[in-house]
Fold:
Amino acid sequence: MEIMNEVKKVMLASVIATASVGVTTQVTAEEEKPSDQISGNQQKTVTQKTVTETDVAISKEKVEQVNAVVKNQEEIVKSNQNEVNDAEKVVGEATEAVAQAEKVVKEATPKNIQDAKEDVSAKEI
Structure:
């Protein structure tokens, strides 16, 4: 019973870890705005804006913010992957323990139990 409870806990932990990895890896981005469609003979006049140092500084700041968010997401993913790896290791160990327990159960025939009791009785005398 104890092994089965441990297996249930391990499976629950692996499901939680997998779900948290899925949730934390979702990255939000700015919505795309559809470009204006030009149809037929219409022409669009484009005025080119001069890029100032302020524009460059603002853009650099935005890039740094995005890079910080990406780095944070990467750390979260790495942490969650480690949790998943640990959970998989525990599941493997629990599976091995269950297999060993099943082997012991198969070997625990009435004849083997009686033989073991006789061995113990013989050693006590």
